[in-house]
Fold this sequence. Notes:
Helix content: 25-40%
Order of helices and strands: EHHHEHEEHEE
Distance between the termini: 10 Å
Number of strands: 6
Radius of gyration: 21 Å
Strand content: 15-25%
Strand order of the largest sheet: 3-4-2-5
Amino acid sequence: MTTESTIVLDELDRALIALLQEDARASYHELGTVLGVSPSTARRRTERLIDADVIKTVVVPNWPKLGYSFVALVGISVQLLKLREVGRGLISMDEVNWVAMTTGAFDLFAQIVLPRNQDITSFITERLAPIDGIRNVETLMVPEFVKSFEEYRLPLEPNPLYVRTCQKQDPGPNGRVPRE
Length: 180
């Protein structure tokens, strides 16, 4: 049995994450002022969340401003024995900004960004086609994002529908509760 840990977030952690999602460049002084804690508490909490891989600091490019106005989702069916090999081939491509293994009609799903919609043919025939193990490709053009991942906000209160029983336990000294 594998034992994973769940980080239990208190109200201060959730409020801190919410503020950082709105402005990741906010100073610890600004965060502390809004949260009603000292800047050093805001810094320690932020560092703890980063060190525990609860949050990550990343820069998300604005693709259209960089000349990439075509976005598509690509569903890929593969020979299952070559699933990881195909996945590695995809992640090495500059056009691909994420890849996920999936269940259902496709084995892999990827998001790609290209300068123009006319470039999809070249991407499929010159970039995807040479990858050994791909059986089928289906592209879905994304004319507009209704909500993108960077717009997601962690709820300030956990949804009771999804709260695990282990999260009701008291965390140990490292702030972690073992998963059952």
